[in-house]
Amino acid sequence: MIAFLRGEILSVRDRSCVVLTPSGLGYEVHVTSRGLTLLPPSGEEVELYTLTVVREDALDLYGFFSLEERETFSILLNTPKLGPRTALAILGMYEPDRLLKIIHAEDESGLAQVPGIGIKTARRLILDLKDRLQFIAPVKEDKPMPAKKTVREDVLAGLTSLGYAPLEITPCLDRILEDEPDLDVASAIRAVLKKKAAEKMRESSG
Q1: What is the pLDDT of residues 34-91, one digit of tens each?
Q2: Which residue has the higher pLDDT, 172 or 146?
């Protein structure tokens, strides 16, 4: 099993990157939406903790910037009815320490903000994960993240997990948050989707 990769970023795709190792082998590595924003430019070196997922029709490699994130992903995959795509979406929106806080607080609505997860699924995940994330360091309450920054990052993570490129949605999101700074994550996502749909309609009619 490949547990760690160090190499040069050869290319970046919508949901993955290709890492060229010094031995000359190139690996396609699937990463979270937040991970895509953290990758260095093509040609620069990256280090990723990796997990190989073997299925009947595929053998995929997933990469993370910390051991904690990789272990959290592994635990999510061992949760009933939760596949790699949804597990990546969860970690794209919430870092492990924030996920731990949501699980301990039994915040069903917070978890349901992840695309593909409804309230019923969130409730089941909270029950399944409550005693399985103890290795994660708790959130440091003495250094709270500004609310607006948190909303912006969570909205970007949610929309990129839906297939939107960060460069495509960031200007629209920034305008919306500037006009309505008190929007929560779900409302901001809906506002961006509505505005993008309106833009497509104008383009098609023109």
Answers
A1: 898 889 989 999 999 999 998 878 789 999 999 999 999 999 999 988 999 999 999 9
A2: 172
Rounded to whole angstroms, how far apart are CA atoms 150 and 71?
Answer: 23
Q: Specify the 3-state DSSP secondary structure of 66.
A: coil
Q: Are 65 and 48 in contact (CB under 8 A)?
A: yes
Among the listed residues 17, 21, 51, the one whose alpha carbon sits nearest the alpha carbon of residue 35? 17
**Which residues contact residue 52 at a Cβ distance below 8 angstroms, ignoring those fewer than 6 apart?**
1, 2, 59, 60, 61, 62
CA dihedral of residues 40, 172, 158, 99 (deg, nearest 10): 80
Q: Tell me if 63 sits within 8 A of 48, measured CB to CB.
A: yes
Tell whether pTM > 0.85: no
Q: Which domains does the chain have, with CATH numbers?
A: 4-64 (2.40.50.140), 67-129 (1.10.150.20), 147-205 (1.10.8)
Instruction: List C-alpha distances in Å: 93 to 34, 35, 90, 112.
Output: 7, 10, 5, 11
